[in-house]
Amino acid sequence: MIGLTVLSESEGWLHQLDPTDALTTFCEQHRFSMDRYDYDQHTFLDLLDYMEFQEFEHYLFVLRGPGERTLRLVAYLQQRMLHVQFHLINERGDVLFGDPYFLDKTIPLEGTTGYTQPIELQDALMSLFTGVYPDTTLRHVYVETTDLLDSITPTLFDQMTINSLLYIDQSTRHDLPVIELMSRTPVLLAFSDTLPFSVRDRLATFERSELDAAMQQWQETGVVLNPEQRIGILDYATIAGMPASHRLFIWSDGIYADYGKRILLSTPSDLNVCQLRERQLDDWEALLPIPQLALYPILFQLASAFQGTSQFVTPYSVFELPRTEGKLGPLTMIGIQNKEGCFAFELLTNQLFETDEVFLAILEADQKERFDVLPKRLGNDYESAVQMYKELIYHG
Amino acid sequence: MDDTPLFGPFARKGSYSRVQVLNHLFADDRFTALYQETSSLPEVDELMLYRRYLQKEDRVLVHGNFSAKLFNTLCAEGYDLYLIESELNRIAGISEQYLNRVYGLSNEVVDVMGSHAFHKIVLPGTTIARYSRGELLLFFRNIRHLLATDGQLLISIHNADYLRQNVQPIASRRMEDCTLFYGQKVDRDRLIFNTYLKSASDEKVGYVVEHLYETDTLFEFAKLSRYRGRTLYAGKSISILEFDKIG
């Protein structure tokens, strides 16, 4: 059986592309199995297991655009699986790896668009240093210096998500440990000077008690303070007690679950990734229910976008009405009031709208299922204001 | 083998003599855990749902597919909860002090509690999906005798359109030192879940067939079975419905 997949690469991140009807028909006519793989959720080891499971004899990667890391991935697969023949061609049909002799005509790629929203390296580094990321796969790994790479069992890197980052806290260097690692596993590497600024330096630092107090303040007043306009909180997930198990910090004195070395997991030589994940999950109790913990970093980041103090309208905090546990279902919009005005932030699209006090009053009543307070609060404007709100929220 | 609802690579694995085909997926703990994990939809916080719609003074029967952890939590909070669960490995996590509230079959509940003993019956999303249309209609009628005269059904239902549009391509998960592969396929009004594992000691495939329902169908069936209903929550992936028993 011959598997075929189409992907693109941006800054080293791999993206599965959707097949067009023409491509699907082509695969059916040529007895190719059109294949899709989620590079965001699966590890290198998972991909090897998957190839074994599917019992492919040949597997053809079709790459749209440039892709140095894709080539490394295909070479890695071939090195690890001798009984499957891997091939890589580009969109023009040029053979970049292998020998796809079974291809007698060009694969129809018209209409398969390349991935247009690359994952920003900054986002990945934010995820590494704050811990805020909604899954449980080992994703980002921090290594203090390149010489530590030799002491880490190579299987660790096989268990990293394919779209994940190995961050080395040194300026770029391609010394022997790095070259050896790159030749073994096609990890995505970043160094401290890969970005022109340090993400870590733009994060706020909190002790757990300070974060607890800040969250209490948010619940009781709606206010989230971020006077230094930081873009996030260092080790937020660990300090707040979120079930974050997707990152590891490898220092010369041990492997930790966080950058601040609060949770020691093991020594570099005693490494079992599955056990590490379980140990991370056991550690700190959550400061708030998980939906509130997940929301707080967004509020903190939004607070940095405005001058002065911002007060937020959320179900979990006091504004004009007492706080609640929230409605059933996901929270879709929050309100913001500060000296720059009134705003609404749509959580699904990350869009910010300018609005007014009346809208925020209705938003809060909606979030807290207290429409009963609105006739008194809005007076003569009640009906028209609520009608306008509903049209905006529920009908776009 | 041809009559088993296995597809793609799962069908191929199932055709090998060395591979055991489990018609009853819940016979394997690892398959059970994987199915529970992948079939839960995070849109609604279940604890919040039940705290909101159950009263502590009401006697409530949960009909299958319920998290043991959630059952323990609600019982500890003072809810008068009972559970019908025929799969032994799905009650493994239930605290010993609450095991006397768990029954294998609805007949056993009637024997112990009598008819019309419950103010509310909870049917979680995957319970409804187990029944074909004919079976579901019969089920609605049969559980009437468990409900008090003014009793209610609380039903969560996974939205058919959402499930059709979000069919899980083949993926894998590591569990207990072996890798499990799983995937879904929509076949008319059925969602078929296939899974495969290979460990040092065994190699198996298993499947579950779920029936996809629109809320309108449930309202229609409820009416035919003499219930009157309303939608409590209509989300992207899940809807929560409440039905009053009539007469």
Order of helices and strands of chain B: HEHHEHEEHEHHEHEEEEHEE
Mean pLDDT of chain B: 90
What overall form of chain B do the CA principal axes indicate? Answer: globular
Mind telling me the C-alpha Rg of chain A? 25 Å
Largest sheet of chain A: 6 strands, mixed
Number of domains of chain B: 2
What is the CATH superfamily label of the largest domain in chain B?
Vaccinia Virus protein VP39
Helicity range of chain A: 25-40%
Number of strands of chain B: 12
Quaternary structure state of the chains depicted: heterodimer
Query: At the third CATH level, what is the topology name of the largest domain in chain B?
Result: Rossmann fold
Quick check: average pLDDT of chain A?
A: 89
How large a portion of the residues of chain B is in β-strands, by DSSP E? 25-35%
Kindly name the structural category of chain B.
alpha/beta
Give the strand tally of chain A: 19
Overview of this protein structure:
The complex is a heterodimer of chains A (396) and B (247). Chain A is an alpha/beta fold. Chain A has helices at residues 21-29, 44-54, 68-80, 121-130, 155-158, 176-184, 208-221, 236-240, 273-281, 290-303, 357-367, 374-378, 382-395; strands at residues 2-10, 13-16, 32-34, 58-64, 85-90, 95-97, 140-143, 165-168, 188-191, 203-204, 223-224, 232-233, 247-251, 254-256, 264-266, 310-313, 333-338, 341-346, 351-355. Chain A starts with a strand and ends with a helix. Chain B has 247 residues and is of the alpha/beta class. Chain B folds into two domains: 8-39 and 161-211, no CATH class; 46-159 and 213-245, Rossmann fold (3-Layer(aba) Sandwich), CATH 3.40.50.150. Chain B is built from nine helices and twelve strands. Chain B has helices at residues 8-14, 29-39, 46-53, 68-76, 106-113, 125-129, 133-142, 160-165, 215-224; strands at 20-22, 59-63, 80-84, 102-103, 118-123, 147-158, 171-175, 178-187, 190-198, 203-211, 227-234, 238-245. The mean pLDDT of chain B is 90. Chains A and B meet through α2 of A and α3 and β7 of B.
